[in-house]
Structures are given as C-alpha cells and as structure tokens.
Amino acid sequence: MSLHVRTIGPDQHLAFVASRGSASFLQTPAWAAVKGEWRGESIGWFRRDELVGVGLVLYRQVPKLKRYLAYLPEGPVLDWSGDVAEALDAMRTHLKANGAFGIRMGPALVTRRWGAATLKAALADDVLTRLGDVPADHTDDAAVAVADQLRSLGWKEQAAEGGFSAGQPKYNFQVPLAGRSEDDVLAGMNQLWRRNIRKAAKQGVEVTTGIREDLAEFHRVYVETAERDHFTPRPLSYFETMWDAMTAEDPQRLRLYLARHEGDLVAATTLVQVGTHAWYSYGASTTAKREVRGSNAVQWQMMRDSLAGGAEVYDLRGITDTLDTDDSHVGLLQFKVGTGGEAVEYLGEWDLPINKPLYAAFTAYMKRRG
Amino acid sequence: MAFDLEIRAADWRAHLAATHAALPGLVPVVKGNGYGLGRQRLAHEASRLGADLIAVGTYEEAHELLGSFLGDVQVLTPWRPFLPRVADPRLVHTLGRLADIPALAQQQPGARVVVEIETSMARHGFDRHHLAEAARAIAEAGLTVEGFAMHLPMTGGNLDEARLWCAVLEASALETTTVFCSHLTLTELEQLRGERPNLTLRPRVGTQLWLGRLDTLAVRATVMDVHTVQRGERIGYRQGRVPRAGHVLVIAGGTSHGIGLEAPRAVAGVAGRGKAAAKGGLAAAGLALSPFTIDGKLRWFAEPPHMQASMVLLPEGAKLPAVGDTVTAQVRYTIASFDTVREI
C-alpha cells in the first residue's frame, strides 16, 4: 500500500497544520492536553516519506475494556479531493491496531453557506423553520459528494438533531474577513450591532487582553452566566489547563478578553486562532450593566484583532438549524446574523464501526448517558 | 364515423367557463392526445376562454400549437440540449438543471424561462440547495425568468409542501413573483393566496378542466356486424371456443383507438387490490371485460381486441343491437383516439 498512517510527533503535526494555512483548533496537538481524560495521538498520512495529512485522535475507553472509540474532532486534516477511500482505509488499519473498535470523525468540509440577507429573509418567514429548507447561497458539490462517498464506504452520519446534540455542531456561523477592512466588517453588521458597539465605546467600556491570572476573574463571570443560562460550568482548572497547553504551542493560540466598565468586569471571552481561522470560543457576561453592551464591545475587539492577526475567518461557532422564532435557540442565530456573516453547514460527524457488537454496545451506552 | 366521441358542447363549455372563472390565473394544459379530445380543439377552446398562456408537454407539441394559439406557450418538459429547437418569442421554456442554463442561453439568448423546483414528486427540477446558484447563473446568462414552478403530487394535502416552496422562492434570489403550480384545490389556492399576497399563483390544469364533467362526453361505438353463435363454436383469430350461446358483436374500436390498452390504475386499499388481482386472474384465463356497455351491462370480450374492431359476446336473452346501432364505451381519455369528435 502506497499510503500509510503512523504516529507522528507534535512538532511534525504542528508544522503540517501551519503549512496548510489552518485547521480546526480541535486538530492541534495541544487539544489532546486539554482533553486530559482522553488519550491523544497525533497521526500522519505518508505517501512514501512525504507527509500528506495529519489528525489528532482522542481515544475514549470502553468501561473495563482495553478497547477505544477513536475520535477525530473536526478532522482529520486531509486532502478530501484526493483518494478518500485509500486514506480512510490506511487510518482504519492504524487505529484498529491501536485497539479502536470504532472511529468517529468530523471532516471540516463546508457543504453549504447561507448569507446574511438570505438568513434574514428566512428568519422573517414563518414557513421556513429549518436552515436546511432554505436555498443555500453556495453549495459545494465536491464536499456534498464526500458524504455520499463516506456512506458507500460504510461510514454512518451521526444524527445531529437540531445540529447540536452530537459532538461538534454541524451548523456554524462565520464572518468572512479575507480581503475586508475593519470598516467593511463594521458596514456589514446590522444597525443594532453597530449601535451597540458605538454605545459601549461612548459609555467608556474598555476591552483589554488578559493573562493566565485573569482566568479566575473570567471564571467568576462565566459561572454567573452558566447559572443564568442554565448550563453546567466547567471548573477553573479546565481553563487553566487549556491556557497552559494552547499558549505553550503558540503564545497567540489562546487569548483572553476582558471588557470593563468603570472598573467592573462586564464581559469576558476567549479567542482561539490557528493560522487564518479565528474562533470565539467561550463567552461570559454579567447580568448587571447589560446596557453598556460589553458583549458587543468584546466581540468587536476580537474581530478587529483577528483581522489584524491575519485571520480570514472569524468563527462564532455553533448554531442550531432552527429558524423557528418560537424556539429559544433562534435568538443565538439572530444575534450572530447581526454580524453580517454567514451560516455554514459542515459535513457533520461520521462513525465507522470496526467491531460491530462493541460499537453497538458503546453507542447504546452513550445514549443512556445522554 | 365508427368509434366516435360526442361532446355536449353547451354543457361542456359551461363547465370550462365555470372552471376558468373559479381559478384565476388558470393555465390550460394541452398535452399528449389532448385528453382524447385533440390538442387543436383544446388550444382553440383555450383561446375562446381568453387564456394568455397554455402549457404543452413537449417541444413538438409547442411547435404545432404556436401556430393555432395566439398567446404564449409554456413547455412542461424541461429544456435539454438534445430536444428539438423551437425558437419563438412566445415560447416559455422550463429549466431544471444548472448545466442547462448556459446551454440554453447560448442556443437562444434572452430566452423566457420558468424555474422548476424538485418537489416531493422527485421528477424534474432544481435541488433546492442549488436554487440560489441557479438564480445567479440565470441572471448572468441573461435569461428572462417568467416564474417559478412546482409540480406537486396528487395524493393527500399538498398545502404544506406548496407553502414551503413559496417560502423557499421568497428566500431565494430568483427575481419573480409568479408561481406555477399543479394539483392544488381551490381552497388550497385561496389559502395560499391569502398567505402570500405578493405572489401570483397560476394553477396549471388539464384533467380537471377538460375532463371535469365526463357526463358531457359520450363515446359512441358502431356495431359493424352481428353473428349468432352456439356454445363451443370456434371463432376469431385464435379460434377460441364460445363459452355460451348467444351473439358475437363486431364493434368499431380496437387497439388503434386505445381499446384493450390499460394504463395501470392507481389502486388504493385492500378491496381495490383484491379487485385488481381478481381481474388479473380472469385475464390470465383469457377472459376480459370489454369497455362496451350493451343492454345496460359491460360485456365480455370474445377474444382480445383487434386493431380497429373488437369482438364482444352478448349472451342469449340480452337485447340485441342492430348493425349500424351505436353502443357506449368507457375509455381512459388520455390514451383514447377517436375516428371523429362531434359536438352536439
């Protein structure tokens, strides 16, 4: 076989990602350190001695067995226009030898895009309740064809109800930055966003970047947000681990943003950048002083810094596929649409069972856990 | 004058006028065999109704009817590069594939088109995810968009699906507010018009218009010969035995008229399936019910229909028609062909 997969070192992994311009931050070696409860491995695809693809594999153990689900979140980083069957077969051979009973991956391929104008029209229409029903402004037929190919190779798409319940979100929201100036980006936003950004500046909201020690302050606001929005907060140690692992890889990989009004912290966020792609990752805001619009100020600062830092995409991450104005999730989309960006649909997460009984038992177990 | 259609013209036209009045924006469909009545006749009736547009099935039909209908002619079959070219400013093409956009523009710059969407019929039309791309390509190619078309299935309620496609049209970049649709009831159309006042809905109607009142149409088949037969006597091309004593009637109307041809019927329900199975069994035994009604009953074929005539058994005791009399027949109009069509 001319193409084979083997374990590679973090440096080689990182160098390949850098040569590609970008990859999901979930496919960087540092992410393995963040996900401490999973064993991580960097793998490389080699044609003879040339490295042609990389992946970060996270191994999740079956309770009491030395067998694993091999998970490549938003990866692997491959040339999907090449021989997909050959590449995936080489990966399967390698992961099976490492004790994997099944593989899960989420190729970072965009299949469809919807622009802000289309989304606005769709949101205003009662009949259109799912993003998938709306004519996409751009369809990537090659990416769509990969889905058919995966299906024919025995991979199964993980049903992502509403696009959120499975691992990584299938629908995301992105603001294109390539070839645009700050003024262009600002002009693309809706009136409310522009007004809020101006308002925050007028009220004297100051946005600064923080250091590791500021994570505690971020975390305090983050816990408050979690209580308000009813989600389970991660412990401070999670963010400290993330900070250590990611900034060790690249000092600019993870940044902390703090928005203050008259000395009070009103909003705090984290920004991740890998090459030309920047992600807004975690966000928090206080209930008090919402009117000073710290959230808009901090987003705008992250966008400007991303642009200055050479990013071509500012990624606001997951949205659900709902357009139903009665659904509480739609507020998130409405907020993001205001940035003038676009909704993108990824190929989704796909599973390949290697040991069918174990795979079936594992998926049943995961379903019970919810 | 042997296998003929009689139209009670006044009643039939009254039905056409009523349907036309009830369905604003109606686009008469004139395709195939003209629903048994003939395309030319229907095109003429469409003119008489004041229709500005008719829909035809194929480019061959369009070519023929552009000569006899003064308004616009829409072709329902999507344009393909290999179909016959008909260049006429009154012709409106149907588009359903991205690849056809530049090809049509090259063959006929500025051509008028209707953009068809792939509905749950899954027959022709653009995938909805390609609609935005199609809109861009059509604008770039300089084609003139005359409307959006959705061909809906016949069963069940179509309103939800029609609603979805109207919403899809409005969220797309297509520059049109005209929607051509099929198989929506009057109530459904009115509901949709109320919800989408900015859209112009134009129902494309064939069967409901032309064959909406079958009682105004009568098929008259002429009895050409009558023979007395005994039980067990061998007759016909196949020299089959006559099962009962009586008469064999030779009636005008054979395979060339569509007699004995059966389009598969949509069968629903257990009883329907049972009937269909029973009919199949009888057919396998060489027995088949003819479409001719004689002395109040449908009669059995004596053998499979010939090209222009059928041999039908009339058992003893039934009232015997004379040569030259006519009997009625039930036909499927979309596959029927008559020697003459008369208005009475």
UniProtKB/TrEMBL annotation, chain A:
Belongs to the FemABX family. GO terms for molecular function: aminoacyltransferase activity. GO terms for biological process: cell wall organization; peptidoglycan biosynthetic process; regulation of cell shape. Gene3D superfamilies: 3.40.630.30. Keywords: Acyltransferase, Cell shape, Cell wall biogenesis/degradation, Peptidoglycan synthesis, Transferase. It comes from Aeromicrobium tamlense. Pfam families: FemAB (PF02388). This is Lipid II:glycine glycyltransferase (Peptidoglycan interpeptide bridge formation enzyme).
TrEMBL record, chain B:
SUPFAM superfamilies: PLP-binding barrel (SSF51419). GO terms for molecular function: alanine racemase activity; pyridoxal phosphate binding. Its cofactor is pyridoxal 5'-phosphate. It holds the Pfam family Ala_racemase_N. Residues 18-155 form the Alanine racemase N-terminal domain. GO terms for cellular component: cytosol. Keywords: Isomerase, Pyridoxal phosphate. InterPro entries: Ala_racemase (IPR000821), Ala_racemase/Decarboxylase_C (IPR009006), Ala_racemase_N (IPR001608), Ala_racemase_pyridoxalP-BS (IPR020622), PLP-binding_barrel (IPR029066). This is Alanine racemase. The lineage of its organism: Bacteria, Bacillati, Actinomycetota, Actinomycetes, Propionibacteriales.
